Amino acid sequence: MGFAKYQEDNYSRYYGTSIVRRNEHDRFAPENDTNKSTNEGSPKKMNTSKLKDFTVAEARPLPVIVLADVSGSMSVDGKIEALNQALKEMIAGFARESSTRAEIQVGLITFGGKQAKVHLPLAPAHQISEVTPLRADGNTPMGAAFAEARALIEDKERIPSRAYRPVLVLVSDGHPTDSWEEAFAALCGSERAQKATRFAMAIGADADVAMLGRFANDKESPVFKAHEARDIHRFFHAVTMSVTARSRSATPNSAAPLILAAIPDDDDLDLDF
């Protein structure tokens, strides 16, 4: 299935390189006596200038974690193909970003069959060269995905304390088939996870919109409803623009709403679910 390429939004805002002063009291020691002139007619040299040591600030991680439904129902009407292509283009969009403040990182958790698993470990987008295509099969163990997301966010080795608030993106076309309430409550109650911005997309008419509405916590970005392959593309394009806007902002911890722009016409994207 072919998909139209999006043109990147042109942002005119430019941020200069941040610098941090290090070892503020460092200075060169006075010259040795052997370097001074012993001739009375020659002036003595004494270097008293203070030199500052500067270093470029390291960009802080901005994690984006996608929770993707890969249950059997995602295999029909081109849904899984649309999701694969949209994820690929989102990661490519993040990889093109260069910011001195934030480094966009991407992780992918899938839930289908009888379990949830980390399909793509969290990594800087510019270091991700390929993502194994998703395959749809089995049930919808969404609760297990919530548990995986919570474990990832609470792992300070993978997401250090200096990281910006993460973005969680939930995509599903059905109802959870496991006991998801407890895992969802634990995710929302986690000290670190509750600070995350959460977006959600309901694919098709059978998606549990009420449950997805509980997941989404951005009042300006309610659950997005995808009725065709084109809509999946629109949603992830909006996620890309929201996250890149944050990475370029002077305050990357502040959430940026989803702005759903129109996309170019492409017959291959006109598949109703």
Q: Any overview of this molecule?
A:
There is one protein chain. With 273 residues, the chain is of the alpha/beta class. It has a single domain, classed as Rossmann fold, CATH 3.40.50.410. The chain is 24% helix and 20% strand. The chain is built from five helices and eight strands, in the order E-E-E-H-E-E-H-E-H-E-H-E-H. Strand 7, helix 4 (209-215) and strand 8 (224-226) form a beta-alpha-beta unit. It is globular and about 45 Å long. Mean pLDDT is 83; it is low at 1-42 and 48-52.
Defining key terms:
six-stranded mixed sheet; two-stranded antiparallel sheet
In short:
The protein is of the alpha/beta class and 273 residues long. It is built from 5 helices and 8 strands.
Overall structural domain count: 1
Gyration radius over CA = 25 Å
Query: Which strand order does the major sheet show?
Result: 5-4-3-6-7-8
Number of helices: 5
CATH T-level topology: Rossmann fold
Tell me the β content.
15-25%
CATH superfamily: von Willebrand factor, type A domain
CATH class: Alpha Beta
Mean pLDDT equals 83
Taking pLDDT < 50 over at least 5 consecutive residues as the criterion, the unreliable ranges are: 1-42, 48-52
- State the helical fraction: 10-25%
Number of strands: 8
Shape: globular
- CATH architecture tag: 3-Layer(aba) Sandwich
Largest beta sheet, briefly?
6 strands, mixed
Structural class: alpha/beta
Distance between the termini: 15 Å
Order of helices and strands: EEEHEEHEHEHEH
